[in-house]
Every structure is written in C-alpha cells, then in structure tokens.
Write a structure and sequence with these properties.
Largest sheet: none
Distance between the termini: 78 Å
Number of helices: 5
Shape: elongated
Helix content: 40-55%
Radius of gyration: 24 Å
Order of helices and strands: HHHHH
Number of strands: 0
Strand content: under 5%
C-alpha cells in the first residue's frame, strides 16, 4: 500500500523560483489611470451628485462604484480644497482652479 501512495505523489521543484501569494488567486483586474479630463468630469459629477457614487455611475460608464469611491478618497486626501469647493453649493465655479 505504501508503494501505491508514493507513485501518486507529484514531485515539486523548489528551484524554479516561482512563488504564489494570496493575490495570485484573485480575479482582480487592473484599472486604468484617471486622466485629467476624466478627473475634471469627476469633479463636475461630484458637484451634481454629491457623494452618491451610484448616481455618478451614469457619468462614468467604464468605471465601477468602488473605483469612484476610491477616486473620491484619493482626491479628498490630496486636493481637499477642490473637493470642498465641488461639494459646496454656494460656490459658483468650483473648477476654476483646474484651468491652466
């Protein structure tokens, strides 16, 4: 019986250098970077929809709700003044800082 078990075993080559981690088995797809025009559209969407990312999905057909939320978090960290201007209804032109 012991010889049958040995025949069924597979030999593993540890010298191949291939490794696997938890993320090796996920179905995560890489997202495209946000361009300047898409970021401007994001701020206009933020001004129109607020932080309702489900409603904002109609403005970004190639993006997911999670991507929009992550974009909001990043912009909130890096450009808090622009996010506040877009969310403040008293400001007439919140995107004037974006003009070059």
């Amino acid at each position: 019986v012991a010889s049958d078990e040995e025949d069924d075993r597979e030999e593993v080559d540890e010298e191949s250098g291939m490794t696997s981690t938890y993320s090796s088995f996920t179905n995560r797809t890489r997202t495209e970077r946000w361009g300047i025009e898409e970021t401007r559209r994001f701020y206009k969407g933020l001004q129109q929809c607020g932080t309702d990312f489900t409603m904002m999905l109609t403005l970004f057909p190639g993006r997911t709700q999670k991507q929009l939320k992550n974009k909001f978090r990043k912009e909130n960290r890096e450009r808090l003044d622009l996010v506040n201007a877009a969310l403040n209804p008293k400001v007439a032109k919140p995107l004037s800082k974006w003009k070059s």
